[in-house]
Amino acid sequence: MMRFCSGCRRQFTPQDLDKEESKEMEGKRRDLGLEGARFLYYQCPDCKQIDIFVHVLPLDGESEERLHARRAALESAAQSIHKARLDVVVSERGRP
What's the CA dihedral at 67, 60, 3, 19 to 10 degrees? Predict the structure, then answer.
C-alpha cells in the first residue's frame, strides 16, 4: 500500500515509519482492548509532517455494514484531533 505525506504529498518509504512510536501506539491499543485496528506512525523527512495511518481490519463474523460503521466512527474521532503537524489517515483493509 502506498502512503503519502498529507503535508507535501511525498510518498513515504519504509524508512519513514517510526517503529518505536508505532509499537508504543499498538501497545496502548492492546491495553485499551481495541480490536480490529492497526496504527502506523510516519514522519516526513522533508516537511516534518506526522501522519498516523489507522487500518480498520474486519473482525471475525463482522458484517460489511458494521465494518464501515467502525471506520466512520474512527474517522470522526480522528477529525477531532487538532495537533500541529499531525494528521490521522483512516483506511479500511479487505478481508483475507
Answer: 130
> What does pTM read for this prediction?
0.73
User: Cβ of 36: how many Cβ atoms within 10 Å?
Assistant: 17
User: Is residue 2 in some structural domain?
Assistant: no
Q: What is the pLDDT of residues 20-50, one digit of tens each?
A: 999 999 998 888 888 898 989 999 999 999 9
Count structural domains, the chain. Answer: 1
Rounded CA gap, 87 and 80, in Å?
10
DSSP string, the chain: ---B-TTT-PBP-GGGB-HHHHHHHHHHHHHHT--SEEEEEEE-TTT--EEEEEEE-PPTT--HHHHHHHHHHHHHHHHT---TTEEEEEEEPPP-
